Amino acid sequence: MRTLTRIFLYVGLIPPAFLLVAVVTLGCSTKSAYQAEAHLKLSASIQGRPDAQLISSVTNLPISIRDKLGFIADSGKRFSAGCVVFEGVPQQRFLAATQSDRVYTVAVEHGGVGYYWDMTEFILDPDGKIVSVRRVEPDGEGVYSH
């Protein structure tokens, strides 16, 4: 790829300024294509439930869930949405979550060749340890548990 880029630069097929902008911005995004949809689905799921709350930052999740999510950008922060991976830039981003008692439903968007979002339900024990994890389709149907 480097050799091909040098050839294109040499013959003037790719202006150097365009190449620099493309490399710096390709795949990194702060605007989410799924943020509004995730908020809508999660808000609807807790409507009329006074014990439930919407969580807007990954930092407000219990440490056990944050550990399970791994390297993840917070809502509105830069992440690698495409298949180009940049050092220090995560390929997944927190969108929002809900909490009702010890049940957390977390929406995350994933970058890479297949850019998508999903929701995962975590159930914690009284000590904050994860006892159940279940992937939830955005339409509310469960996909699998582990």
Mind sketching the topology for me?
Elements: H1 2-11, H2 16-25, E1 28-29, H3 35-46, E2 52-55, H4 63-69, E3 79-80, E4 92-100, E5 103-110, E6 116-124, E7 130-136, E8 142-145
Antiparallel strand pairs: 1-3, 2-4, 4-5, 5-6, 6-7, 7-8
Low-confidence stretches: 1-9, 16-26, 142-146
Sequence of secondary-structure elements? HHEHEHEEEEEE
Mean pLDDT: 82
Into which percent range does the helicity of residues fall?
25-40%
Q: What is the number of helices?
A: 4
The N- and C-terminal alpha carbons lie at a distance of 40 Å
Spatial shape: globular
Q: Estimate the strand proportion.
A: 25-35%
Describe, in plain words, how this protein is organized in 3D:
- It is a single chain.
- The protein has about 150 residues and is of the alpha+beta class.
- Helices cover about 25% and strands about 30% of the residues.
- The chain has one domain (about 30-145).
- The protein has helices at about 1-10, 15-25, 35-45, 65-70, and strands spanning about 30, 50-55, 80, 90-100, 105-110, 115-125, 130-135, 140-145.
- The protein has a 6-stranded antiparallel beta sheet with strand order 2-4-5-6-7-8, with helices on one face.
- The chain has 4 helices and 8 strands.
- A hairpin with a 2-residue loop joins strand 4 and strand 5.
